[in-house]
Automatic annotation (TrEMBL):
It comes from Streptomyces macrosporus. Residues 12-152 form the Activator of Hsp90 ATPase homologue 1/2-like C-terminal domain. Belongs to the AHA1 family. This is Activator of Hsp90 ATPase homologue 1/2-like C-terminal domain-containing protein.
Length: 155
């Protein structure tokens, strides 16, 4: 059975605003990189079957060597399914020589109205074994905190 990593939180913004932040290039560059990283999108095609390529750079690579180079993780992401404003399904492949990072990881972002906000749950399946589960779940939680700050500030 493949490993499943999860994280979630309630964001004080409506589902449509959260969904929009998942499909806006500048928004993703701002909030998706977890703490200790910055991101740059190299290409962008926000439609089912489209996707993006993101270069994530570690601010201090000494503690977190990258998957692609000493200081970077490069990931190609396909938008496998888009259901506004309820769900975004992404298929992510890391550019890496190490086979422990090989394979396609699926990330499903579920958005559900929760009072005046949105409950966001991220489920990652088929996570490459080279990615430490605790570190990955902390990274997803960090991205969700960044997303909350981003959309709550904009709203």
């Amino acid at each position: 059975m493949s490993r499943i990593d999860r994280a979630g939180r309630v964001i004080a913004a409506p589902p449509a605003a959260v969904y929009d932040a998942l499909l806006d290039r500048e928004s993703l560059e701002a909030w998706l990189p977890p703490d200790g990283m910055r991101g740059r999108i190299e290409w962008w095609d926000p439609r089912p079957g489209g996707g993006f390529r993101m270069v994530l750079t570690y601010l201090d690579p000494a503690d977190s060597p990258g998957k692609t180079s000493d200081a970077t993780d490069v990931v190609d992401v396909e938008f496998a399914d888009l259901v506004p404003p309820e769900r975004v399904v992404q298929r992510a492949v890391f550019e890496a020589d190490d086979p422990s990072y090989a394979g396609t990881m699926t990330l499903t972002w579920h958005l559900a109205a929760a009072g005046d906000g949105t409950e966001v749950t991220v489920t990652a399946t088929d996570v490459p074994p080279g990615i430490d589960q605790a570190v990955h779940e902390a990274g997803i939680a960090s991205s969700l905190a960044n997303l909350a700050s981003y959309v709550e500030r904009a709203g």
